User: Fold these one by one.
Assistant:
Number 1:
Amino acid sequence: MVSHHRRRFLLQAAGLCAALASADIALAAPPPVDENDTTASSLGYRAKASSVDAAKFPKYHAGQTCANCRFYTGATGDAAGPCPMFPGKSVSADGWCNVYAPRT
């Protein structure tokens, strides 16, 4: 017969294992935005801001990147991070899109 304490321990251990397994999934980096994705194309997203066609996107100016856009929520120094324009995806910190707005 399994004691009450042992049963409780086993249930807590199983719960901890499940929590750790789901944390690994939650902490996995989201996939990068594909420049050919429909949304990315319509917003002129480029993973390297220096490759933006300024004739096609006259709003672009040198020095504008996702890292210094108000919508980018990646940490300073990260190579990529989340942006609400591309839910569930990661944008390059060196990237740019036509929704760019400087941080204030």
Number 2:
Amino acid sequence: MATPSPLHDQPSGTAMKPEWQLRLYVAGSTPRSSAALENLKRLCETHLAGRYSIEVVDLLVNPQLAAGDQILAVPTLVRKFPEPIRKIIGDLSNEERVLVGLDVKPLR
């Protein structure tokens, strides 16, 4: 009897760290913060499906976390990995700008 591979044995996402680690800083559940999260999810599913994780940090709940990534405005998206760290401020509605900013798509 064959032993199943550990990758297939575990729930998806637990076998290894995702290739893209993203952190979205927001301030409460404002329309702009909600739009940024929805736009980010849509872009990730389209261009990074199965290779990303998103951590949402609400600075109204944890304001001290803003200092670590030097957050000056919200919403701000921080690409933690792959390095180098990159930041994009805004609601992420400009798909081309976000993809180039994250270095998912090269500048034309």
Number 3:
Amino acid sequence: MSFQTGHVGLNVSDLDASKDFYRKVFGFEIVGESAGQGRRYAFLGQDGTLVLTLWQQSEGRFATGVPGLHHLSFQVPDIEAVRRAETVIRELGATLHHDGVVPHGEGASSGGVFFEDPDGIRLEIYAPAGAQGLTAPTPGAPTCGFF
């Protein structure tokens, strides 16, 4: 049996803010949505493939101190795509960790940008190469594990 990640579903507190954020940062398109009272959701995708579902059924901020999602990671083809995403993240004023693009660890060529969505859900956009020579923020530990 072989497994592959399908779409990811996130609970959000403000569907409109989250749709706007994910569309601007990731370039996702809306492939379905509902504005029904008490049942608001949006399906976001890319090239006709469902990637992310947003469900407006939460309050407050994402809790990092309880078991559950650690972070959600997206791979892009190259470090230039990571830097383009970083520019949008900064323009939106989103929380950005490590002050920009960093490698996944000391001496790693892969790396990315680590940030939060409007509800505080931790996100990563990374490229498999192009971060060599950059300074890792947490010596001796994976960057994606501690932010």
